[in-house]
Amino acid sequence: MNLTGIVSVSGMPGLYKVVAQTKNGLIAESLVDGKRLPIFSNDKVSSLEDISIYGNSADIPLKDVLGMIKEKLGASGVPTSKEDPKVMRAAFASCVTDFADDRVYTSDIKKVFVWYALLDAKGLLDAEPEAVAEGKEENTTDKIPAKKAVAKQKDSVKAAAPKASTKGMAKTQTVRKTGG
Asked: Domain for residue 67, yes or no?
């Protein structure tokens, strides 16, 4: 399971995959409909890798929670967002036994189940991190030499450009009045 580059944006429904970074924020692609949209630096963005659920002894990373849900319930047993909150909480408790019941809200549990269903529908829960990393390495190795070549070309252009000379510049002189 690889959650790299998948984010949740406060105030926007669903999950987004980060496609590019701009000077003012990010370009993200919706996992729901595939539309790309800008996410600005003043939007609150949370990476799924950084999210965790309160536990009784320690916080449980979302990746582990999703793995526990996959193990126990699979795709067919996951409650929908329209289910009764008590049913959702009971299903969550059957999967994640060490969560802090008094600190985890029903809305959080609902969000986890919605995210699980979305990630499962897109096949992102089955992807192994090594396979995804190998695919990225293959893509980046093709692009890196071209980037280095462009950088070297820019460096050679900078080196070939004449530097500004300071010989013709006027020096600041102090004018002194002589007595008289």
From this structure: yes
Q: What is the CATH number of the domain that holds 92?
A: 1.10.10.1650
**Could you tell me if 128 and 148 are in contact, meaning their C-beta atoms sit under 8 angstroms apart?**
no
Nearest to 113 by CA among 80, 84, 90: 80
Q: Both tokens of residue 69? A: 């849900």
Say how many domains are in the chain: 2
Model confidence over 114-173: pLDDT tens digits? 999 999 888 888 766 544 444 444 444 444 454 444 445 445 444 444 455 445 445 555
Report which of 147, 72, 69, 140 is spatially closest to residue 111, judged by C-alpha positions: 69
Task: Tell me which residue range forms the domain holding 22.
Answer: 6-47
What is the greatest pairwise CA distance in the chain?
Answer: 104
Query: In this predicted structure, which of 18-32, 75-89, 123-137 has the lowest mean pLDDT?
Result: 123-137
